Amino acid sequence: MLYRKIHIVGGPGSGKTFSATKLAKNTGVSAYDLDRVFWKQCQNSYIRACENIRDEKLASILSNDSWIIEGVYYKWLTDSFKDADIIIILNPSVHLRQWRIFKRFLYRKFILRQYKKETLSSFIEMFYWNKNFDNDNMVRIKKFISEHRNKVVFCRTYQDVVSAINA
Questions:
Q1: Global confidence as pTM
Q2: How do residues 153-163 score in pLDDT, each as one tens digit?
Q3: Check whether domain 5-165 has CATH 3.40.50.300, yes or no
Q4: How many helices (H) and strands (E) does the chain have?
């Protein structure tokens, strides 16, 4: 593998967690889900972690010689983007992302049954946020990381990600 510090960003349902987990398994590089850094890990609701704790967790991840970081976040990740060897923007079609969000909701709500914070209301909110993601959040993400454009690679699939990190 050519790159040892990989940052994967993309909208909900884009395959960030899937790609990071599979890369970690195949390469031995640890993967970190930014949801676990940004949110307090309580089962019943979404509550943001305090900034100091979030920043300490991120600094601890970045201190490693290699990492795969994945998430939809960008505003507080200046150091992660700067330190990354490659920044992968996962951008499958919005319809595929919507389908994945729907499947994930059903799986968490009715199969796992341990995700009490997953509600019909939170699903609808995520569905509509994702619908507008490309024309809103993704535009801001691209602007935020524009100084690192030489490290940015756009991918639609996990296979594209594998090709990018092995190029």
A1: 0.90
A2: 999 999 999 99
A3: yes
A4: 8, 5
